[in-house]
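Recap quiz, item 2
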Amino acid sequence: MEKNYHVCTGCSLLCDDIEVEAEKNKINKVHTACRIGVAHMKAGKEEAIFRVDNKPVDEATAISEAAAILKNAKNPMIFGLGASTNEAQKTAIELAKKINATLDDTSSFCLGSLVEALISEKIKTCTLDDVRNKADVIIFWGTDPSDSHPRHLSKYSYFPRGSEKQRGWEEERTAIAIDVRKSHTAKICGNYFFQIPPKGDAEFTDALIAGLSGKLPKTSYNYPPKKILELANILKGAKFGVIFVGRGLIYSLENLEPLFRLMKALNEKANFHLMPMVGNYNTMGFNENLFAETGYVNSVKFENGTVLHGPDYSIVEALKERTVDAALIVGSDPFSILPRSIVKNLLEIPVISIDPYETLTSRNSKVYINTAISGVEAGGSATRMDGKKVSFEPAIETNHPSDETILKKIMEAL
Amino acid sequence: MDFGSFLATPEIKVKVITYRDIFQDKAMIENRFGEEYRNLSAVIKLDPVDLKQLNVKKGDTVILKNSFGRIVVKVDESGYETPHRGVAYMPKSPWSNMLVSDETGGTGIPKFKDISVTITSAKGEKITEIEF
Ligand code: SF4
C-alpha cells in the first residue's frame, strides 16, 4: 500500500515522514512527529480572521488597509518570513524592492553571521544525510536539539544506524556537548559533557586549539587541562566530525574568528564540518533567497534599485533608532522574541501582522491577517537546515489564504 | 556571612541563563496566552540554598528586577546536582525578554544571554501579564 507522507514545518529539520489522520479537514492524529510536530500539525484553526484596529473586517478591507499603510510610509520595514515558503519569501523580496523597504529576519540577531559564512563557503559544511551515514564525532555546542529540534539525534546525528555506521551510537559515534548548562542533550552525552562558564566559549576554543597541537590548554576559569586534552584527542581521531552550533555559542563570541581558527586547526588533523542549528523551518531559505538577490543574508534596505546593508538595517537597530515608520511582519512575533526595552518602540508605528497564530504582535497590530500554516494548510517549498530543498503539499484543505497569496494581493493593491 | 540575611526582605543577585524547553514550546504552539504556557514560562529556577536565603518556597512568586524591567514569576528548584548559587535558569519567553538590556553596541544583536537581576520575595504578588 502506498503511504501518503507529509512534511512537518515545526522546525528546520522538515521531517518528511509524517502521517496524519484527518476528518472534515481537521487533523486528529499525527504519527511519527515529535511533541512539537504533533502540536504544530494539529494547530489549524477553523475560521479565517481579518482585523483592522482590532475589529473584524473582510479580506479586501484588510488588504487595502495594509496597502494604504505601506503606501503612506516613507521607510517601511518587512520582517519575519522564517516560517514562510520560498515562494512567499521571494514575493516579499519583490514587495520590499517595490516599496523601498528595509528587509530583515530573525537571523540578524540569531545565527545569520554563521549562515552567511557558510553560504559564502568560508566554512566546510555537509548535509544531515552525510551526518547520519558517516559522522563518528558529533559536537553540540551551545545548542540543545533535544528541545529545539527534537528528532535531530534520533533521525540524523546520534542514534541512527547510517550506511557507514551500522553499529550506531553504542560503538561508532561519540556525542559531545559543550554548554553553560546541563541540557537534555548534554545528559545524553554523559561523560562527554563539558560545562563552561557563560562567556567562556572563546577561551575554551583557544584552549582546545592548543590541545590539538599538544600544548597545555589554559583557561582563566581553570578548566581541567586533562579534560581538554582528552577532548582534543577524540577530535583528532575523527574521520567525519561535525559541530552543530547554536545561539549559546554565537552570543558568547565577539566575532566568528575563534570558530574559524578552530575549524582550521581541526581540519589540519581530522575532517570536520559545521552546521548552524537554525530554528524556524525556512530561515535557511530566507537567507539563501535574499543572498541570491542581494549578496546579503539579512539586514538590507532597498533604495531605487540599489541595496544598502548593515546592522543599521536590522530590526533591532531600526527599532532602537526609530528609523522605520511602518512594519509588515510575516509569520513572526517580535513583541515576544525581542527585548521589551527595544520592541516597545514598535508600538509607535502602524504594524501589519500576517500570521497563522494569534500572537502579541497580532494583538498589537493595526491590520491582522490570519493565514494558513504552511505544510499543514498550504503547499510550497522550503530549505532544510542543511540546505536540502523540500517541497510539500497541504495535509488538509482550508479557507485560510497563504501568506504568499496575501503578499501578492497587497502588492497588487499598491 | 551573607549580609542579605539581616535585611527585612532578603535580596540576592543572580545571573540568569535562558534556555529552550520542548514542553514550553509545545504549549506556546497550542496557546501562547494560555495557562500552560504561562506556567512553563514565567518561572525562575534556583539553587536550593538561594531559595532558602530568599526565604521562599517552591511555587511562591518572586520579583526579578534590573534597570530594564521588573517582573513577577514563580520560583522553582533547578534540580541540578551540582550547586550553582548565584546562577539561575529561565526558559526563554516574553517574560525573560522583559529583563534584557537595550544595549547592542550598534551590532543589531541584543545581549539575550547576559541578564543579571536581583530577586526578592513577591509576597503573593501575581505573575506579570505579558500584554502591553
Ligand atoms: S523534529 Fe521538527 S520537523 Fe521533525 S517532527 Fe519535530 S518539529 Fe517537526
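The radius of gyration of chain A is 22 Å.
Chain A touches chain B through 52 residues (CB under 8 Å).
End of item.
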